[in-house]
Amino acid sequence: MGTDKHQTGEARRRIAVNVRRLRMELGLSQEGMAELADFHRTYVSQLERCVTNISIDGLERLAMALDVDITTLLEIHPALNSAGKG
């Protein structure tokens, strides 16, 4: 099982980038996003900073709140190329 193409935490980084991007496109604060998804505001912040993991059920709640398919949260986005590098 090679790890050269898939690094540990890659899915978490994709989710973080996409949640932040989609939230901002909708003009939502972290608090507003949390309210829509029935999460605590600090949890949304932790997700966007890759501090915590999220369950499948949580992903589903986020997708519904953002009005996207759950797979959208796992898409590779151009911002991911620069996230976490430095």
Can you tell me about this structure?
With 86 residues, this protein is mainly α. The chain has a single domain (10-72), classed as 434 Repressor (Amino-terminal Domain) (Orthogonal Bundle), CATH 1.10.260.40. Helix content is 56%, strand content 0%. The protein has 5 helices and no strands. The chain has helices at residues 10-25, 30-37, 41-48, 56-66, 78-82. Helix 2 (30-37) packs across helix 3 (41-48). The chain is globular, with a radius of gyration of 13 Å. The model has no long low-confidence stretch (mean pLDDT 87).
Derived structural class = mainly alpha
Question: What percent strand?
Answer: under 5%
What is the CATH T-level topology? 434 Repressor (Amino-terminal Domain)
* CATH architecture classification name: Orthogonal Bundle
Q: Give the CATH level 1 class.
A: Mainly Alpha
Element order: H for helix, E for strand = HHHHH
- The number of helical elements comes to 5
State the share of residues found in helices, binned by percent.
Answer: 55-70%
Runs in which pLDDT lies below 50 for 5 or more consecutive residues are none
Separation, N- and C-terminal Cα atoms: 27 Å
The major beta sheet can be summarized as: none
Shape: globular
The domain count comes to: 1
CATH superfamily descriptor: lambda repressor-like DNA-binding domains
The total strand number stands at: 0
Mean of pLDDT:
87
| Rounded Rg | 13 Å
